Amino acid sequence: GAVVSQHPSRVICKSGTSVKIECRSLDFQATTMFWYRQFPKQSLMLMATSNEGSKATYEQGVEKDKFLINHASLTLSTLTVTSAHPEDSSFYICSAPDLASPYEQYFGPGTRLTVT
Amino acid sequence: KQEVTQIPAALSVPEGENLVLNCSFTDSAIYNLQWFRQDPGKGLTSLLLIQSSQREQTSGRLNASLDKSSGRSTLYIAASQPGDSATYLCAVLGQNFVFGPGTRLSVLP
Fold it and tell me: How far apart are alpha carbons B49 and B62 in whole angstroms?
C-alpha cells in the first residue's frame, strides 16, 4: 500500500530555535498534504492543508508565520516550527491522499517534538 | 462543522472478552470513516476504512460498521487480547479529516 514517511521521528530543540519536519509520499503523488497536531490526551487537530505549488491553508487559530509550510513537490511537504516554545511540544502528523484515490488518506508515522 | 465523539473514553476488560467501541459524527456528508490504533509514542495504524457507500468492513478479529444516516460507527473486537491494548481513534473524511478523541482500551491478562 501507499506509504507516507516523516522525518525526524523525534526531535528535541531549545526554545527560540526552528525545527523542520518533512513529510514524504514514497510511492505516490500528492498535490495536497494535511498537517495535524496532537496534544496529550487530546484528539488530532488539523493545523493546515499544504498545497503543491501554492500557499498553504491554515485552520483558524494556527499562526501561519509560526508554522511555515512548504509543498515543494508532489511528494514532499515541510512544516517548520519557528521560534519554538515549550507549548509547541506535541506530536505532529501528516497525511496525504493519493491522487489516484483521493478519498483514502495515508498517514505518516508522526514526529514528536519536545521544546525545552 | 463536523464533530466526532467516541464512547467510552476508556475501557478495561479481561482477556477473551468481545467488546464494542462507539463513534458518532454530526455531519453525515462524509466520504469515508476510518478506525485507527495508536500505541503510546507511535504513529497511527489504520485498522479499517469504510467508504460512505459501505455498511461494514472486517479484518481478522475486527469488524466495523457504519450507519451514515444516524451518524454512527462501531468497532467490534472479538476475543480481545492484551496486545489489543491501545487508543482507538475513529476519523471521518469530509472536507478534511476530523478525528474523535479516542477510546483507551486496556485488555488485562
Answer: 12
CB contacts of B51 in chain A (<8 Å) are 103
Give the integer Cα–Cα distance in Å for A10 and A23: 13
Closest Cβ opposite residue B32 in set A43, A44, A103: A103
Three-class secondary structure of residue A38 per DSSP: strand
Residue type for position B27: D
Cβ-based contacts of A45 with chain B (< 8 Å): 99
User: How many contacts, defined by CB atoms under 8 Å, are there between A and B?
Assistant: 44
Is B52 exposed, middle or buried (CB count within 10 Å of its CB: 0-12, 13-18, 19+)? Answer: middle
Q: Provide φ and ψ at A88, rounded to 5°.
A: -80, -10
pLDDT at B78: 98
**DSSP characters for B45-71?**
EEEEEEETT-SEEEETTEEEEEETTTT
SS3 percent helix, strand, coil of chain A, rounded to 5, is 5, 55, 40
**Residue A107 scores a pLDDT above 90:** no
pLDDT tens-digit map of B22-70: 999 999 998 888 898 877 645 567 788 888 889 999 999 999 999 999 9
Tally the residues of chain A: 116
